[in-house]
Amino acid sequence: MVPVLLLIALATLATAVVLRHFLPLLRSPGLPKGSFGWPLIGETIAFLRPHPSNSTGGFVHDRIARYGTVFKSHLFGAPTVVSCDEELNHFVLHNEERLFQCSYPGPIRTILGESSALVVTGERHRQIRAMFLALVASTGLKPAYVASVSESARSVVASWRGRDTVTFCEEARKFPYKVIMEQVLGLSPDEPVARRILVEYQTFMKGVISFPLTIPGTPFARGMKARKRISDTMEAFIEERKKNGSSKQGVFLDVLLANKDLSHDDKVAFLLDSLLAGHETTSVLLSILIYFLAKSPNIVEQLKREHESVRSSKGKEEPLTPEDYRKMDYTQRVVSEALRCGNIVKLVHRKALQDISFKGYVIPAGWKVLPILGAVHLDPSHHVDPEQFNPCRWEGLNQTNSKSFTPFGGGQRLCPGSEIVKVEAAFFLHYLVLNYRWKLDGEDVPMLHQYVEFKRGLPIQLEPL
Ligand code: HEM
């Protein structure tokens, strides 16, 4: 009898808490239309259901049909305004720290660490971001850096010689890993420390995209441990570098170590971030390119003509230069189209710092705001036949960043790595289309979970040219 009474008391209490929490929110005038779903979990499970990356997914699609491109929901434990509207997305991204603030869910912050660029706000964000901008400036389109990216792309593609099939997602990781390791730490990926970091990093990544349960043995808990081990390895590496100095010129670690504004923890977090942000996203972009191109032989032919023309003016073994990159117009359109259809970063997390009115909607202070970047990329009023992979749509258009094309976010948090990625993707395509024909070894669709994933790792069959 006592447990039954206890249950009734708990249920009454829970109902009272839920009603107290939800009812005033539902009644606020000017709120976008929408529903809150279940108490506490809200609609998070339906929202996170995986879908092909060149579609908005059932949840967003249904809500847009029912309520329009701005709607309310309850996601990640908070009342939320979801925006699939290019104007509101732009407004949110461009009012960072004034009206909105970056606000990733607790589990993401736990696993990335409190010093991650994605997590920090205010002055600390400015300082850490400045380091990333310095990293990008140290590479830019400088001939030595461009030549080393070219060489890395060449060597990864060359390593497939004699193989009929490869699991592309694995191969795609090697190239940006090589670039970022050499650039930031001055390490070749074959050195034992770099190999150790890669193994730990893969466990860490599984944690980042897993369900956030800190119980020992779960992927999340293993991911957190792997993060700690990478941090320890980075720390040991930093100490060793401080003692013995760098044997190579132009390694970014030396710039990082000389920075007086950042704490030791910030520096370790910077190294982790550059691996996570600079390596995983780029390899996903390469996989998406391979996937869509495998289905578009005409586009591959046109790409090949462009790269044959680039190569015709130079020796077979000569690395690519910044001038070569500037000649790759069609390639840039292909990359932009892969970014639009791939939606590698589907959304960004923000919260409203005060009550905000925009286009007749009210966003109450403290609410979460989720600009869905991908929904605008797939909106037929901005992109004709949006589900089609069609690089020609970019002819004569701005491909850097516009209100309807924001694969790299925008405003104060615009991705600092966008140019690095484009050079890497273009050079990789150069060596690929000049050396191989490929087709998919069975269907394997890019699926958007929290992150884009190919279930089978994207196996492809290769035919040398
Ligand atoms: C295809 C590849 C990439 C995509 C699609 C991408 C996308 C994004 C997006 C959408 C954001 C904004 C997050 C937000 O506003 O909350 C972001 C931020 C960031 N990205 Fe990238 N990124 C890519 C590659 C890279 C690379 C190569 C680097 C390496 C330098 C990098 C470093 C960062 C950093 C440090 C931030 C945080 C910036 C800040 O908060 O100030 N990303 N990225």
UniProtKB/TrEMBL annotation:
<keyword id="KW-0732">Signal</keyword>
<dbReference type="GO" id="GO:0016020">
    <property type="term" value="C:membrane"/>
</dbReference>
<protein>
    <recommendedName>
        <fullName>Cytochrome P450 724B1</fullName>
    </recommendedName>
</protein>
<keyword id="KW-0408">Iron</keyword>
<comment type="pathway">
    <text>Hormone biosynthesis.</text>
</comment>
<keyword id="KW-0503">Monooxygenase</keyword>
<dbReference type="InterPro" id="IPR001128">
    <property type="entry name" value="Cyt_P450"/>
</dbReference>
<dbReference type="Pfam" id="PF00067">
    <property type="entry name" value="p450"/>
</dbReference>
<dbReference type="InterPro" id="IPR017972">
    <property type="entry name" value="Cyt_P450_CS"/>
</dbReference>
<comment type="similarity">
    <text>Belongs to the cytochrome P450 family.</text>
</comment>
<dbReference type="InterPro" id="IPR036396">
    <property type="entry name" value="Cyt_P450_sf"/>
</dbReference>
<dbReference type="GO" id="GO:0020037">
    <property type="term" value="F:heme binding"/>
</dbReference>
<keyword id="KW-0812">Transmembrane</keyword>
<keyword id="KW-0560">Oxidoreductase</keyword>
<dbReference type="GO" id="GO:0010268">
    <property type="term" value="P:brassinosteroid homeostasis"/>
</dbReference>
<dbReference type="InterPro" id="IPR002401">
    <property type="entry name" value="Cyt_P450_E_grp-I"/>
</dbReference>
<keyword id="KW-1133">Transmembrane helix</keyword>
<dbReference type="GO" id="GO:0016132">
    <property type="term" value="P:brassinosteroid biosynthetic process"/>
</dbReference>
<keyword id="KW-0472">Membrane</keyword>
<dbReference type="GO" id="GO:0005506">
    <property type="term" value="F:iron ion binding"/>
</dbReference>
<feature type="signal peptide">
    <location>
        <begin position="1"/>
        <end position="16"/>
    </location>
</feature>
<feature type="binding site" description="axial binding residue">
    <location>
        <position position="415"/>
    </location>
    <ligand>
        <name>heme</name>
    </ligand>
</feature>
<keyword id="KW-0479">Metal-binding</keyword>
<dbReference type="GO" id="GO:0004497">
    <property type="term" value="F:monooxygenase activity"/>
</dbReference>
<dbReference type="GO" id="GO:0016705">
    <property type="term" value="F:oxidoreductase activity, acting on paired donors, with incorporation or reduction of molecular oxygen"/>
</dbReference>
<comment type="pathway">
    <text>Steroid biosynthesis.</text>
</comment>
<keyword id="KW-0349">Heme</keyword>
<dbReference type="GO" id="GO:0016125">
    <property type="term" value="P:sterol metabolic process"/>
</dbReference>
